Amino acid sequence: MKTTINISILTIAIGGLIWLLTACSAAPAETPIVTVSIEPQKYMLEQITGDKVDIRTLIANGANPENYDPSLTHIMNLRKSIGFLRMGNIGFEAALLDKIRQEDPELPIFNTSEGVVPVTGTHSHGHGHGAVHHEEIDPHTWTSVKNAKIIVRNMLDAMVKIDPSNKDYYRRNYERFAQRLDSLDRDFESRLASHAGEHFMVWHPSLSYFARDYGLEQITAGNAENKESSLTMLRKTIDHADSHSASIFFYQKDLDSRQAEVLSDQLGLRKVSINPLSYDWEAEMCAITDAITAD
Fold first, then answer.
1. What is d(CA 277, CA 140) in angstroms, rounded to the nearest whole number?
2. Were both Cys, which of 49, 185, 247, 276 would link to 206 (CB 3.0–4.6 Å)?
3. For the whole model, what pTM was predicted?
4. Which residues belong to CATH 3.40.50.1980 in the chain?
């Protein structure tokens, strides 16, 4: 009787062990993490990767990249990533790269704006009265369909390197998205052709590449840091906008200075709210084009 009980217990124990091993082996593998800097990058990368990777963004929608300081959580997420696809010229990225290389020198890092012809001068700054002003590269490379074609190609190359097992899947998705970008670009070119040479106003210089793409002129009312402008600078901006018949004021309601609304009201401009850091990158690009071609 005792022997029979012991055999039964042993049988149950072995069965439980087999079930446990089977359950563990059947558990889905953890989805690899890839980190990007901003939400528009996440949108673009998802068009290529689908559900093959978990894409994490350093800057959540609504944050200001001009004064952003990555938290410890963001650093930890980066350490879990199989790759970091940075935007390229956003200020906080340079400081972050030093931290990453100290914490995880083996983490693959890719500049997704590599190959984009830069715009300079929009974020110029000096250090004190009479100092030489240094021209920095405008970081808003993603606010351009033409640039997006380069960015997503860089993303494809990055994913093929860090996850070669899915390279064929990534390439198929890339080809579809590249065709979509070509279609968008042709549509924008056709609709904006008759508006070439027109001026529009922004507070923060976020549409430099878009303006360059389609022969438009961006008048910057504020500055790269979204700080208050002097009365002298505002007067010059008003005169400049008047002389070039600007009719639209693009503003970021959560980030722009309170002077932005006052200025647009004084000029009688049509105000259009934009969010260059929105996840829905394509919708933002279409909304900007719609606003300019509405007149």
1. 10
2. 276
3. 0.82
4. 33-119+134-187, 194-293
